[in-house]
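Hi team,

Below is the intake form for histidine kinase from Sphaerisporangium rhizosphaerae. Please confirm the fields before the structure is written into the shared record.

FORM ID: S-0412
PROTEIN: histidine kinase
ORGANISM: Sphaerisporangium rhizosphaerae
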Amino acid sequence: MDDTAARAAPGPLNVNSLRWKIAALVALAACGVALGIGVLVHRSTFDRSLALGRERATAALLPIVDAYRRTGSTGGTFAADAAPPAALTRQVRRSDQMATWYDDGNPEVPWMWAAQRVDGRVLAAQVDMGADLRSLRALDRHIVMASLAALAVVVPLAALAAELPNRRLRRVARTARRIAAGDLDARTSGRGHDRAGSVAGGRRGDEISEIAATVDLMADSLRDRLLSERRFTADVAHELRTPLMGLVTAAGLLPESEATDLVRDRVGALRALVENLLEISRLDAGVERADLARVPLGEVVEESVARTGLPARVTDAGAAMTETDPRRLDRIVANLVINAHRHGRAPVEVAVEGTSVVVRDHGPGFPDAVLDGGPQRFRTGAAERGHGHGLGLTIALGQARVIGATLTFANAPDGGAVATLRLPVPHPAGAHATDHTNG
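The structure came back. Fields below:
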């Protein structure tokens, strides 16, 4: 995986990953369930405590009422010499029925009152509810601790359970990135057509399996189309070569005239196009091999620029001996210089330093399509970059791969297109030259 793909892949601590989103969702759901159950248990326990308090207060009031009716005495009516709440007194005075009242004016020492009017007098009894309140608070603490303990177990388990689908999705994403980078043999399952056929045949797994199979099917389709395109390009180039040779011969036999010059020029352009198509077909087929030799990089570049017949300023800032295929290097440099003149503006500068060759023009620069996805055949990228078939940069990029070099495209900050060819560092003397061949 390249650096870009590595940066795109989410790490285990990435909070935006699906694993942690699932874990957060499970945690929220668990908190919601714990809160709902906690509130339900708290309310149910509190209501039960009030019911028991009412029973106890009523039981404490009944002997007082019986004693008052028998003896008319009010002794021991009020516990702790306290008077009943005014609201309870008003409620009892409106009715002869017994009534109860929960007094939580003091949160630490709540009371449950029971009162009844007998012969115009309000008799009352109170029961301490402090023990019930403390028991309720202890229950709340136990619910909170149990909920936290459950979360401490559930959240890691949810993260672990989410890791399996997350890992499968990452594998699908890695495969998609490899396919986008040009590796059309990459597959999520390693079974290629078998996996894709499971979708077409109706044998479906889960959603991730369907996504993986669809990615494999897409890769198969892209590979087949690309191979078909390459075969078509090679077949067309080969089929055109025979009649083209006849055209070249016939053009050479024409009498000299302005029309003859025009015909020869167009035939020459057609011949160059066919030769470029044949070269691309060989590069696509992977049959090209580099014939490496130790050469002075600066001299080879100067000779390549001179053979183009186009003006370009060459600067040699300490270029050393390098091991490469001089014929393919010449092809790369010539294509870059021709492309700079065709699509850019003068002056064209070629800088050689170490094992790098930089070709720059002062035109509008490379279009975004070339910067993002690299050059594509029969596409120049933008109308303002002039005419052409889009084959020069494609051939240069393919030849660079053959000799083990890297070719990158960028735009200068002050304007102009910049193509940088980086040759591999020469290996020590005595090593095999075939180490740098790129099959």
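SUMMARY LINE: Strands lie at 99-103, 111-118, 121-128, 293-296, 313-316, 321-324, 349-353, 356-360, 406-411, 417-422.

Thanks, M.
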